[in-house]
């Protein structure tokens, strides 16, 4: 679903206004970052830490992709969301996903100014300790896609470059799920240590309908080999297309989708 969403604190009524071409996916990212105390908005993160059950998520406007920036700015102003007494937004300007304006950078710099990083300042960590810290933060370990053999520096890079949720990628790497985004994933160092094991995983894998079937865009009539291929061509989230195929959503990227049954 493409549009404008709101994250609202039910206790004090403060709101955060955001935009996305795939709102369900964007919400899951917000929730994940807040739960792990790593959200990029310090004001929102602090409130969440105090009352994690107080927040609700809802869509306030569906619109076309080209209308996102204008509508987000209009609603930020309408809800007075940049006023700390009423909202959590840092920037009154819409920057789109992954972008940060100079105004936002300046505000974040002022928020973090003077914070002490403690006893770790200036220290050089040993190789063994760096490895320990890396293993303790699984999202920062290098990841390989078993099908393409492409190596990413971390699960965060997979989400940014391939559009696959990092939490699902990590679940594949730890053996809690088979695929994410239609592909198999593994930690690169695990793969290097035992490539035969991962080769067996690929050989034994039987694709399900959601990962191996052709899909058709009902609005354009174009047929794609998989939902993953459609997502690459159109720049959409593969999970959002799959939600349409399963009947959980009406559209993805403004398009309707269905499995294609060959005649």
What characteristics describe this protein?
263 residues; alpha+beta; GIY-YIG endonuclease; Arc Repressor Mutant, subunit A; 3 domains; three-stranded antiparallel beta sheet; 12 helices; 9 strands
Can you summarize this structure?
This protein is of the alpha+beta class.
**Helical residues, percent:** 40-55%
Low-confidence stretches: none
Main beta-sheet strand count, sense and barrel state: 3 strands, antiparallel
Strand content: 5-15%
Mean pLDDT: 81
What name is given to the CATH topology of the largest domain? GIY-YIG endonuclease
Element-by-element helix/strand order:
EEHHEHHHEEHHEHHHEEHHE
**Can you tell me the CATH architecture of the largest domain?**
3-Layer(aba) Sandwich
Q: Strand pairing plus helix content: what structural class?
A: alpha+beta
User: What's the domain count?
Assistant: 3
Major sheet: order of its strands?
A: 2-1-3
Total strands = 9
Count of DSSP H/I helices: 12
Computed over alpha carbons, the radius of gyration is 21 Å
CATH domain class name of the largest domain: Alpha Beta
CATH superfamily of the largest domain: GIY-YIG endonuclease
Give the arrangement of secondary structure elements.
Blueprint: E1 3-9, E2 15-20, H1 23-35, H2 42-50, E3 55-62, H3 68-78, H4 102-112, H5 127-136, E4 143-145, E5 151-152, H6 155-162, H7 166-173, E6 185-187, H8 188-193, H9 195-204, H10 209-212, E7 215-217, E8 223-224, H11 227-234, H12 238-245, E9 257-259
Antiparallel strand pairs: 1-2, 1-3, 4-5, 4-6, 7-8, 7-9
Helix pairs in contact: 6-7, 11-12
